[in-house]
Each structure stands twice: as structure tokens, then as C-alpha cells.
Amino acid sequence: MAVTDWIIAGIAVLALLVSTAALVHSRRAARIARRSQEQARQAAAFAAVVQTAQLRLAEAPPNRWRLTRHGAATNDLVNIGDMTAYDVRVEVPAGWDVVSLPTERDEVPSGDAITLGVARSRMGSDGGVIRVFWRDVPGGPVREWAHPGV
Q1: pLDDT of 123 over the 50 cut
Q2: Residue-averaged pLDDT of the chain
Q3: Where are the domains of the chain?
Q4: Cβ neighbours for 142, distance < 8 A, ≥ 6 positions apart
Q5: Confidence of residue 122 (pLDDT cuts 50, 70, 90)
Q6: Pick the CATH number of 65-148 from 2.40.50.140, 2.60.40.1230, 3.10.290.10, 2.40.30.20
Q7: CB-neighbour burial class of residue 12 (10 A; exposed 0-12, middle 13-18, buried 19+)
Q8: DSSP state of 61
């Protein structure tokens, strides 16, 4: 065998090794690409679920309240929504006196009421707004409802 035959055989072996390495590398890259594609698909599906849940929460009607006066100094604040309200806090207008009844509750289930002892002071204005602050879920965003004082 001549030297040129050995050189050609060596080059052929080298070409075979390089092509085998390229094939292994391309298969590994294809596997990595498939995994990345699957992870991206899963992340997109998860993001869609989260976005749908956030949109439903944003579009859901907030808890609605009804405020009714009973007597000179008591009001019933009724949760007429279909969900429990959490971290409920009531603010009364300046110049109104709160009469020894709580203005905060951890939970107000649907249909339940808070009895507010609110008496309008003689020095207070004739107007004013009673504000109710609550959360739809514990730790969620604070919502607000306002009603003219009764």
C-alpha cells in the first residue's frame, strides 16, 4: 500500500469520526430542543390558566352590600353577594359617632349582616358616605363599596 493510500484511508477515518460526532451532537441538540419546546408549552398552559383565573376574578361581581337603618343609631350592613367577604372594615363619615358596636370583622358570609351602631352627631354634616372595605379572598386585593349615610 502506498503512502497516498494510507493518507486517504486516514482522512476517510477522520471524516467518519467527525460525521459520527456531528450526528451525536445533532441528536443531542434535537432532544434538548424537544425538551425546551415541551417546557415552553407547559409554561404557556400554566400562564393561560393563571390569566383565566385572574380575568374571572377581575370580572366577577364584587360582594354587594345593603345598608338599612334600624332605629336612631343602628344600621344593618348585609352581604347580599354570593361570596364570603374577608377582612371587612367599615368607615363612617367624620362627625358621626360609632356607638360601641364593632366596625371590623374577619369574615362576613353571604347573607350575614354586621350591625353598626352609628349615630349622626348634631355637629356632623347632613351628608356623608359610609365606606365598606373587604377582600374577596384572604390576602386578596381590597375592594370598596360606598353608600350615602342613612
Answers
A1: no
A2: 83
A3: 1-59, 65-148
A4: 87, 133, 134, 135
A5: very low
A6: 2.60.40.1230
A7: exposed
A8: P
